[in-house]
Amino acid sequence: MLSSQLLFIVLIATVAGVILFRLYTVLGRRTGHERPPREPYGLARSNDNVVALPDRSARAEALDQPADPVARGLMEIKLADRNFDDGHFLAGAKGAYEILVKAFAAGDRATLRPLLSDEVYAAFDGVIRERAAKREKVDFTFVGFREAKIVHAALKRRTAELTVNFTAQYISATTDASGAVIEGDAKLVRTVNDVWTFNRDVKASDPNWTVVATHGDDA
After folding, report:
1. Distance (Å, rounded) from C-alpha 150 to C-alpha 168?
2. Domain contains 50
């Protein structure tokens, strides 16, 4: 009986030894091709291609402060006047430009006065008076715009200031008292660049903008 029990123990020990040896041959040796251990969630090894996200405050500052001065000025105006829309303004500025150049050619002071600052109106009125004194007449036809672009935007306390570069086309000819053409050409389409500055009190109930400066030349 004792010999049988001893033989059984030896057999069990032998089997256990074989199993342990096989486990060692599989798990105990490194071949160099093993997968690396997983990193804890949210961490990465230094040699991974990982791009760090910028700090939230830095991103917020970049969004709040556009690099382009015109975009920054437009944002400041929008923050001061929630109803302001630069696309709507530009469409209105183009309409005002067409109305004003036609009125100036026709000597229509009633149309000019409410849309111009005192200084600009005085300059326009001076030219109209001079033409009238010389009995000159302007034959004018507005053709259209090639481009209209906001080139400056700023908020100065309560005053929004926007400058627009208009590239416009029209036919213009000035004749003297005898009907002779002294400036322009009644058959030639001219292209001109006009730079006009508009402003408006953002706290005022009046939505209209006023032309406060003009500059122009042939394109």
Report:
1. 14
2. no
| Tokens describing residue 121 | 């109106």
Q: Residue 202 in contact with residue 158, Cβ under 8 Å?
A: yes
* For range 142-171, the mean pLDDT: 97
At residue 65, the pLDDT reads 62
Q: Which of 8-17, 72-81, 99-108, 133-142 has the lowest mean pLDDT?
A: 8-17
On whether residue 47 sits in a domain, the answer given is: no
* Residue type (1 letter), 135: R
* pLDDT given at position 172: 97
| Total domains present in the chain | 1
Q: Cα separation of 141 and 189, whole Å? A: 9
Total H helices, total E strands in the chain: 6, 4
Tokens of 51: 């791009």
Residue 168 included in any domain: yes
